[in-house]
Amino acid sequence: QVQLVESGGGLVQAGGSLRLSCAASGDIFSTNVMGWYRQAPGKQRELVATINSGGSTNYADSVKGRFTVSRDNAKNTVYLQMSSLKPEDAAVYYCNLLVLRGFKNYWGQGTQVTVSS
User: Fold this and answer.
1) Nearest CA among 31, 30, 20 for reference residue 111
2) Residue 30 predicted with pLDDT over 80
3) Three-state SS string across 64-76, please?
4) Residue of 70, 72, 74, 97 lying closest to 82 (CA atoms)
5) Quick check: 16 pLDDT over 90?
6) What phi and psi, each to the nearest 5 degrees, are found at residue 98?
7) CA angle, 55 then 56 then 57, to 5°
8) d(CA 97, CA 80)
9) How many CB atoms lie within 10 A of CB 36?
10) Residue 61: what are its φ and ψ, rounded to 5°?
11) Partner of 97 for a Cys bridge, out of 31, 77, 106, 115, CB 3.0 to 4.6 A?
12) Helix count (H) and strand count (E) of the chain?
């Protein structure tokens, strides 16, 4: 069984920064993709950023240059450093783990990010 535990959400002023963390435990296997998605009220869940076990990253165009995804494989943890936050970044941010062995997809419980203008 896989568990994803997120932390780091909160309230920040526009232009500020936040760092999200997500620790994975269980049958993770070494080859996987970890990342972050977000869902604002009334909108579909969308990709924010992903990073695979080799360190290759992928970002949504809307966050390129402002957000940085990273991971610590020894700790099975993925991070999202968010800078220059905008009100439109406000959403519930979900950690995601895709285990390539069997293509199993897991989600965290979500953490709220609120950006005040």
Assistant:
1) 20
2) no
3) CCCEEEEEECCCC
4) 70
5) yes
6) -110, 110
7) 110
8) 14
9) 27
10) -60, -35
11) 106
12) 0, 11
